[in-house]
TrEMBL record:
Pathway: Nitrogen metabolism; (S)-allantoin degradation; allantoate from (S)-allantoin: step 1/1
Region (Disordered): 426-457
GO CC list: cytoplasm
GO biological process: allantoin catabolic process; purine nucleobase catabolic process
InterPro entries: Allantoinase, Amidohydro-rel, DHOase/Allantoinase_Hydrolase, Metal-dep_hydrolase_composite, Metal_Hydrolase
Protein name: allantoinase
Composition skew (Basic and acidic residues), residue ranges: 445-457
One Gene Ontology molecular-function label: zinc ion binding
Quaternary structure annotation from Swiss-Prot or TrEMBL: Homotetramer.
Cofactor(s) listed: Zn(2+)
EC number: 3.5.2.5
């Protein structure tokens, strides 16, 4: 037998979550990829055998919305700490946002700096978004050619001066340019004309200052311009159910637009935010329990296709007990799978649906054809997940850099027991790669566009 034909690893589970459904299987891994899917009790030879029994086997999750902040604000979060937290939460691929680092990723030089900062530190695979800001239309194609997965823009202030928002003319210009090379624009959609300074320090005043109609109006603008320009567009972190109707209508009309939501919008509610607990602050904000239920329906109906973290940490001193003044961002990279599973299982959703929302669809969005599913030829990114075990969150025990999270003290269902990246148990030394999208680019989850295998970095 040739060395390249030797099976390196076989993982067996009675609850393997495959694209065709959940059931018993043995997954054979060779040279970092899934080489075969077999019966659970098949006789297979391998250098290593793992039998998970009734512990579920999932594909590694793909989180396309992570603010790592390195270089420049590494004391907020860095590649080493963020990817360790990701692996502990069953996430084997992250795509880093272009802002909160210094400089932001708005030109090829800044992207190169990001890659230098990440090299040798990452426990999981990492890709990068570029940024679309006023004055950098000329940089968008070079960034695309350099391997970003798409371009993020804001329609309202981002919270950091070095990443300003686009006005309507700037948004249209960016869309025209990105459409010219069939790139992807991802949008923080809040209408600045409907935002206001909070009237007081409490959560109710903060929530009133960022109404759901501000999201809807911004989504309607993006839909109109995407239809006009033909660009592929994706709405980030939908928190308001008012967005669902225009998104569904746009999809029916053939506009190339998708949308995501986040674990905190599906699990937390405005009614439960304690006084002064600014670890719950994010933009757009966590809304009411009735709104949350409508988001779950939008997810089940496919109007929202992805669930990703929007992990946006800061140092504790920026989370002052005043919702008007505190930094807005939720730290949850390690907790997303358990948080979503806790609420999804209560509503009758299975692990297969969670995997579609948190692995397959984000991988499709970012053009990562080798990720997001347990299937022959895919990377052997795998997660042992005990869906019935419970645990109480201790912020100090989490792996992200600063011990701040709104999930502290909350009991969640589901525990990650082990994580493999390309068939190797995640650990030291770091084995993560820096990724680029496939030559065909990202595609919309559920669309009929196909992508080629991603190139090696």
């Amino acid at each position: 037998m040739r060395a390249e034909d030797v099976t390196d690893l076989v993982i067996r589970s009675r609850r393997a979550v495959l694209p065709e459904g959940e059931g018993p299987a043995a997954v054979a891994v060779r040279r970092g990829r899934i080489a075969g899917l077999h019966a659970y009790d098949a006789v297979l030879e391998a250098a290593e055998q793992v039998d998970l029994g009734d512990t579920a086997l999932l594909p590694g999750l793909v989180d396309t919305h992570v603010h790592v902040n390195e270089p420049g604000r590494t004391h907020w979060e860095g590649f080493a700490s963020a990817t360790r937290a990701a692996a502990a939460g069953g996430v084997t691929t992250i795509v880093d946002m272009p802002l909160n680092s210094l400089p932001p990723t708005v030109d090829v030089g800044a992207l190169a700096g990001k890659r230098r900062a990440a090299a040798g530190q990452c426990l999981v695979d990492v890709g990068f978004w570029g940024g679309a800001v006023p004055g950098n239309v000329k940089d968008l194609r070079p960034l695309h050619e350099a391997g970003v997965h798409g371009f993020k823009c804001f329609l309202s202030p981002s919270g950091v001066e070095e990443f300003p928002p686009l006005d309507v003319d700037g948004l249209r210009a960016a869309m025209v340019e990105i459409a010219s090379f069939d790139g992807l624009l991802i949008v923080h959609a809040e209408d600045p004309g409907l935002l206001a300074e909070p009237a007081g320090p409490g959560y109710e005043e903060f929530l009133d200052s960022r109404p759901g109609r501000s999201e809807r109006r911004a989504v309607e603008l993006v839909v109109a311009l995407a239809g006009e320009t033909g660009v592929r567009a994706h709405i980030l972190h939908v928190s308001s159910a008012l967005c669902l109707e225009p998104l569904a209508r746009a999809r029916r009309e053939g506009v190339r637009i998708t949308a995501e939501t986040c674990p905190h919008y599906l699990t937390l509610t405005a009614e439960e935010v304690p006084r002064g607990a600014t670890e719950f602050k994010c933009c757009p904000p966590i809304r009411t329990s009735a709104n949350r239920e409508r988001l779950w329906r939008g997810l089940a109906d496919g109007v929202l296709s992805c669930v990703v973290s929007d992990h946006s940490p800061s140092t504790p001193d920026l989370k002052v007990p005043d919702f008007a003044a505190a930094w807005g961002g939720i730290s949850s990279l390690q907790l997303g799978l358990a948080a979503v599973w806790t609420e999804a299982s209560r509503r009758g959703h299975g692990l297969g649906q969670v995997v579609r929302w948190m692995a397959a669809n984000p991988a499709a969005l970012a053009g990562l054809d080798g990720k997001g599913a347990i299937a022959v030829g895919k990377d052997a990114d795998l997660v042992a997940f005990d869906p019935d075990a419970g645990h109480t969150v201790d912020a100090a025990a989490l792996h992200h850099r600063n011990p701040v999270t709104p999930y502290h003290g909350r009991t969640l269902r589901g525990v990650v027991r082990a994580t493999w990246l390309r068939g190797r148990a995640v650990g030291d030394p770091p084995g993560g790669e820096l990724l680029r999208p496939s030559p065909a680019g990202a595609r919309h989850p559920g669309s009929e566009r196909t992508t080629e295998e991603r190139p090696s970095p």
